[in-house]
Structure formats: structure tokens, C-alpha cells
Amino acid sequence: MSRLSDAASRRQVLAALGVTGVASLAGCTALVTGSGDEFDVGMTANAFNPPEITVAVGEEVVWHNTSARGHTVTAYENAIPEEADYFASGGFDGESAAREAWREGLGGKIDSGESFRHTFEIAGRYDYVCIPHEQAGMVGAIIVEE
Ligand SMILES: [Cu+2]
Q: Which residues surround ligand 1, an ion (CB under 5 A)?
């Protein structure tokens, strides 16, 4: 089985869990977010879930804020492969720009129910953080394999 099909089945499982979760909370329609049914990494109150995933080169990773709080997905500039494109919610081209934008006006915030996606073209390890919850240990890693 290829890694891409692993990824596809991972998303299907998450989607199925999402449907089950909604069904078990019948009547609580506030939890239904429409486009947020498929994702790879969720964001709880102060954690990425799961905190580490492995994907194949060329695969898109979708983060989805499953909590009530605002979060960011912000790559650690010095903890991604040298040739890789920098990534951060808000589209900043570097970590200092992302941190400054957050300080000045919550730039890059992913609100409750919103998603962020990034496609990884270079193999390696990518460490990232949620800026407002860094102290709480809200960090994650994407491992990209050939
Ligand atoms: Cu956060």
C-alpha cells in the first residue's frame, strides 16, 4: 500500500469519526462545521492532535481548529529543511514576520472551525508551533518522506 493511499484512508477514518461524533451529539448542530469534516491534524484547546504525522512528498496536510480558541500554525524557521518553503497561517514568509503580526493584531489566527492547509514538496522534518500557546507546549511536527 502506498503512503498516499494511507493518507487517503486516514482522512476517511477521521471523516467517519467526525460523522459519528456529530450523530452522538444529536441536536447540537453548532458542532457541524461543514467543510471541516476532513483533516489531518486537529487543534484542541492547547495541542495539535496528533502532534506528529508522517506524509509523503507532494501531499497536502490540512489542519482544522476543532476547539473554541484561536490558534496559529507557524513553522519554526530553523527547524524545517533548508530548501523548503517557509509556511505559516496568514501566509507570512518568515517566523519573525508571523510573530510580529500576531503581536500586533492576531495576524495568522485560525478561528474555531477554520482550516489551514500546506503542501509539502521537500522531504524532511518540519517543526511548528501555535504562537499564542507556545508556553503551553502547543507544538507539532510533520515528517515528510520520499
Ligand atoms: Cu494554540
A: 71, 130, 133, 138
